[in-house]
Each structure stands twice: as C-alpha cells, then as structure tokens.
Specification:
0% strand
C-alpha cells in the first residue's frame, strides 16, 4: 500500500492539496506584499516616533540639568554680590562713622581753642581793668594822703606811667 492509496481511502485528494498549497502561497504572497508591508511600515514609523521621544526626553533632561546648574551659578553669584554689597556698606558705614567722629573731635577742639582764646582775652581785659582800678585806687589813696587833687592831665600821665611799669 502506497501512501497515496492510504490517503485516498481517507478522502485526501492530492490534487486538491496542491491547489490548496498554491492558493495558500498566493494568499500569503498578497498578504505579505500589501498587509505585512503596511504593518511593517507602521511598526517602523512607531519605532521612529518612540526613538524620537526618547531622544527628546534625553535632550530635555540635559537642558533641565544645564538650567539647574545655571540657576545654581546665578544663586552663587547673587550671594557673592550680596556679601560684597554688605561688606562695602559696612566699610562705608565705618568710614562715615569715623568721619563724623573726626569732625566732632575737630569741632570740639575748635570750640575748646576758641573758649581758651576767649578766656585769655577776658583775662587780659580783666587784668587791664584791674590795673586801671588799682591805679585809680592808688591815685585816690594818694589824693587822700596828699589831700590835694592833681589835674586831669597829671592824673592820666601818672596812670600811664604806673601801667607801663606794671607790664
């Protein structure tokens, strides 16, 4: 018994099988040419979109990292500048305070000098006045002793002589 006879007994027709295989191959060829190609293109396009999305995500992550670094640099620069401004302000405040203190000391010294000059002038005036009064008292005492009043010219000459001898 041959295989074809056995297959024939069970109802297998080899001619139909060959035609079925040819039909299957033709359908497979048509499906692969039109449908699988479209599916392949769609899959390939989808892979490109996914790849582009991954590249964009990496790019955005890099940009975010760079922006964060730039932000940190700006913050550091701002802190340095703020510290510099504070240091300058403190130095300026100390300079202004020193200037004010120096001016106050100068003014106090000037007031002291003027006061000493004023005291010296007043002392000199008081001494002159005291000399005159002393001279007047001496003249009065002399007049009382002599009981004789001198004339005004003589009084003046006597006073000037006395003042010249005191100096």
């Amino acid at each position: 018994m041959d295989i074809l006879e056995i297959l024939g007994k069970i109802g297998f027709d080899w001619k139909m099988a060959v035609i079925s295989v040819i039909n299957f191959l033709v359908v497979l060829l048509i499906i692969s040419k039109f449908i699988f190609a479209k599916i392949g293109e769609s899959v390939e396009e989808r892979q490109k979109i996914i790849q582009k999305g991954l590249e964009d995500a990496d790019r955005v992550a890099n940009e975010l990292s760079m922006a964060e670094q730039k932000y940190n640099d700006i913050i550091k620069d701002a802190q340095k500048e703020a510290n510099s401004i504070i240091t300058d302000a403190e130095a300026n405040a100390q300079t202004v305070a020193q200037d004010i203190k120096s001016k106050a000391n100068d003014e106090a010294e000037e007031i002291k000098t003027k006061a000493q000059e004023q005291i010296s002038k007043e002392r000199s005036m008081m001494l002159d006045k005291l000399k005159r009064e002393t001279a007047d008292l001496a003249i009065l005492a002399t007049e009382k002793i002599l009981k004789d009043k001198l004339d005004q010219k003589s009084d003046k000459a006597l006073i000037e002589d006395y003042l010249n001898t005191i100096k």
